[in-house]
Amino acid sequence: MNPERSNPVRSGMTLIEVLAALAILVVLSAAVIGFFLSATSRRDQLVKLASQERECAVLLDRLESSLLTAVAVAPDGSAGVRGGPTSLAVTSRGVTGALPGTAALSDATSLTFEFDEASRSCICTLEVDGADPVREVVASAIERMRFRYSNGRAWSTDFDTLSSGGLPAAVEVSIWLEPRAGPPEGADEPTPPETPAEGPGGAGLGPVDFAPPGAKPEWTPREPDHVRVLVVPDAPSWKEAGT
Known about the structure:
There is one protein chain. The protein is α+β, with helices and mostly antiparallel strands. It has one domain (about 45-180, about 195-230). The protein is built from three helices and ten strands. The strands form two sheets. It has a six-stranded antiparallel sheet with strand order 5-4-3-2-1-8. Strands 7-6-9-10 form a four-stranded antiparallel sheet, covered by helices on one side. The longest helix has about 55 residues, at about 15-70. The protein is elongated. Mean pLDDT is about 75; it is low at about 95-105, about 180-210 and about 235-243.
């Protein structure tokens, strides 16, 4: 008897080996796909964050520019600077940065910055004498936005140059961006910090009010993503209409 025929040499793979190889291939494929999905998600988040940061910078710079030439009284006798916790209107004179489709030079212009909770964006409205108002969304994907005003001694959430007798010493702008970063699992819910005695959020306001009036109660208070205190330089007060 031929020994080679009685003890044949086995070649190829068994069914168990094939299944094991397929299982390894599936695991490796899932890991590679998960890596690419995670990288794509992170890239999209970085692009969104960069866009948010750029829009916030444009918003704050435009507001600061308008406050540099702000006046106490508008040509029609109304308040030159008036605002609440979620909106601020500033009348300025001189050369201003215009919105698309408007003239670049104007003697008196009014810029209104308003947070629209429905669209979660900040809308800027430019009004120039003799022209129709122009509205533009200057920042989007904003979760909350708040204005506060200092008279040099304390901060408040409302201001009017006529009733206050002059321009505000400073305007504080706080911006909360989307998406909101929730607390880690198992961590205690954050609570609003107490207002410091001096500086932004000065004495007399108690705990910082993070949410505007009428805000949804489920919003969790947290520190804003951007806070800028804009100092208003001294400007001449002019009360005569038409000057």
